[in-house]
C-alpha cells in the first residue's frame, strides 16, 4: 500500500485542532496522485501540492493570507491550458458508525453528482433514499470525503442535515470525513454546519497540462 500523501497529515491535524502557524507562509508539497494539484488555505498559512519546483513556486511570492489562491497564481500553477476547479470551503466531521442508515444505490451512475465525484475521486460509493443521494469516496490526498444531492422536493425541509447525519453512520465511529462545498452554495453550507461539520479552510483543485 503506498504511503499517504503528506497533505493528509495536515488535514487530519486540522480536524484535531492543530493548524499550521499563522505566519503568512506557504508550504509546498509534491503533486497529488492522478495528475492533480491543489492550493489549500488555512488561517494565515497555505499548503500547495504541485509538481513544480518549490523554489520556482516560492519565487512567485504567494502568501498564506489568500495570495496562494489568487487567480493569477492559480493560473500559473495550472499552466496556460490547465484546468482549475472552483473555490470550495473544506469542512470535516467524524463518523458516528453503528447501523448504517442509508442503503446502497445502484441506479445513479449517470447522475451529475456521481459523474463529478468519479472524475476527481476514487472508490466512489453511492447511498441514499427518497431524500437524495450521498457519495462516499477517497478525495484529494486520500481523505475520506462525502457529498450530497437532494431530491428537488427536499429543499427547505431539513432533509439536507438529516441526510448528512445519516451519512455519518456510513463512516466508522471517530474517523474523519471531509466535504468540499462552494461558499456560494449557502443552503448546502448551512446544512453541513447544522449536521456538525466544522470549516477548516478553503481549497482549489487543479490539473496541470503536460506542456505547462
TrEMBL record:
It comes from the Bacteria. It comes from Streptomyces sanyensis. SUPFAM superfamilies: Acyl-CoA N-acyltransferases (Nat). InterPro entries: Acyl_CoA_acyltransferase. This is GNAT family N-acetyltransferase.
Amino acid at each position: 500500500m503506498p504511503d499517504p500523501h503528506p497533505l493528509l497529515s495536515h488535514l487530519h491535524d486540522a480536524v484535531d485542532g492543530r493548524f499550521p502557524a499563522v505566519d503568512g507562509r506557504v508550504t509546498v508539497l509534491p503533486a497529488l496522485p492522478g495528475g492533480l494539484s491543489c492550493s489549500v488555505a488555512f488561517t494565515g498559512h497555505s499548503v500547495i501540492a504541485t509538481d513544480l519546483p518549490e523554489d520556482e513556486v516560492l519565487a512567485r511570492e504567494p502568501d498564506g493570507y489568500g495570495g496562494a489562491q489568487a487567480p493569477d497564481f492559480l493560473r500559473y500553477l495550472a499552466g496556460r491550458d490547465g484546468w482549475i476547479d472552483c473555490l470550495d470551503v473544506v469542512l470535516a466531521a467524524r463518523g458516528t458508525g453503528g447501523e448504517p442508515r442509508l442503503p446502497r444505490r445502484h441506479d445513479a451512475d449517470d447522475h451529475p453528482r456521481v459523474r463529478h465525484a468519479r472524475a476527481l475521486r476514487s472508490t466512489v460509493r453511492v447511498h441514499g433514499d427518497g431524500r437524495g443521494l450521498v457519495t462516499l469516496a477517497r478525495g484529494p490526498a486520500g481523505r475520506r470525503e462525502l457529498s450530497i444531492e437532494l431530491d428537488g422536493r427536499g429543499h427547505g425541509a431539513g432533509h439536507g442535515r438529516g441526510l448528512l447525519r445519516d451519512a455519518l453512520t456510513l463512516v466508522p465511529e471517530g474517523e474523519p470525513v471531509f466535504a468540499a462545498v462552494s461558499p456560494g452554495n449557502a443552503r448546502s453550507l448551512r446544512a453541513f454546519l447544522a449536521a456538525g461539520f466544522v470549516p477548516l479552510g478553503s481549497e482549489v483543485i487543479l490539473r496541470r497540462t503536460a506542456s505547462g
